[in-house]
């Protein structure tokens, strides 16, 4: 069976208002561009036994950058701005489709917003840009780390 490509506009960001064990997902409305840059630290594992440098993978650096169209009275954008100033930790899922659809997949992580900017271009829609990064979170005394999540 041929693979079905997922266009960029098919991706969605959700916010969990429940618990990790029993999530209640709410679609973040008005999102535009979404990026998920992942970088692994390179640990030098070279020795004098070889003339070649060798590496091991180290810690993974992850961030989620996204834009939200600015609209007066948009509850999602107001919630994100409040979370930014309060430095709240909250769970998101960046999915390649509807989070209620079996087979949809994407990143699931507890994050904190580390940057926010308001873009006011002369000839385009105003947007809010956010950068979210993984944050420490425990549920039932178990640390929850970011993961690639597939809806079963």
Can you walk me through this structure?
- The chain is mainly beta.
- It has one domain: Hcp1-like (Pnp Oxidase, Chain A), CATH 2.30.110.
- Helices cover 8% and strands 47% of the residues.
- It is built from 1 helix and 12 strands, in the order E-E-E-E-E-E-H-E-E-E-E-E-E.
- It has one helix at residues 75-86; strands at 12-16, 25-27, 31-35, 38-44, 55-62, 64-69, 90-95, 105-119, 127-134, 138-139, 142-143, 147-150.
- Strands 1, 2, 3, 6, 7, 8, 9 and 12 form an 8-stranded antiparallel β-sheet that branches.
- A hairpin with a 7-residue loop joins strand 8 (105-119) and strand 9.
- The longest helix is centred in the middle third of the chain and has 12 residues, at 75-86.
- The two termini are 20 Å apart.
Short description:
This protein has one helix and twelve strands. It is mainly beta. The model has no long low-confidence stretch (mean pLDDT 94).
Spans of 5+ residues with little confidence (pLDDT < 50)? none
Shape: globular
Query: At the first level of CATH, what is the class?
Result: Mainly Beta
Strand content: over 45%
Protein structure class: mainly beta
- Number of H/I helices: 1
In the CATH scheme, what's the topology name?
Answer: Pnp Oxidase, Chain A
- CATH architecture annotation name: Roll
Q: Helix and strand succession?
A: EEEEEEHEEEEEE
Q: Count of DSSP E strands?
A: 12
Distance between the termini: 20 Å
Assign the CATH superfamily: Hcp1-like
Average pLDDT for all residues: 94
Radius of gyration: 18 Å
The biggest beta sheet reads: 8 strands, antiparallel
Question: Helix fraction?
Answer: under 10%
What count of domains describes the coordinates?
1
């Amino acid at each position: 069976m041929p693979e079905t490509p997922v266009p960029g506009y098919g991706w969605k960001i959700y916010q969990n208002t429940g618990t990790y064990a029993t999530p209640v997902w709410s679609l973040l409305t008005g999102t535009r561009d979404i990026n998920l840059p992942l970088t692994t630290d390179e640990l030098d594992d070279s020795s004098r036994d070889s003339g070649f440098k060798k590496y091991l993978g180290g810690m993974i650096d992850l961030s989620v950058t996204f834009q939200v169209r600015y609209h007066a009275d948009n509850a999602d954008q107001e919630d994100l701005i409040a979370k930014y100033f309060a430095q709240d930790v909250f769970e998101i899922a960046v999915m390649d489709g509807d989070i209620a659809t079996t087979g949809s997949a994407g990143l699931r992580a507890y994050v904190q917003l580390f940057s926010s900017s308001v873009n006011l271009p002369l000839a385009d829609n105003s947007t809010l840009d956010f950068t979210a990064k993984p944050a420490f979170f425990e549920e039932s005394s178990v640390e929850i780390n970011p993961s690639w999540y597939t809806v079963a």
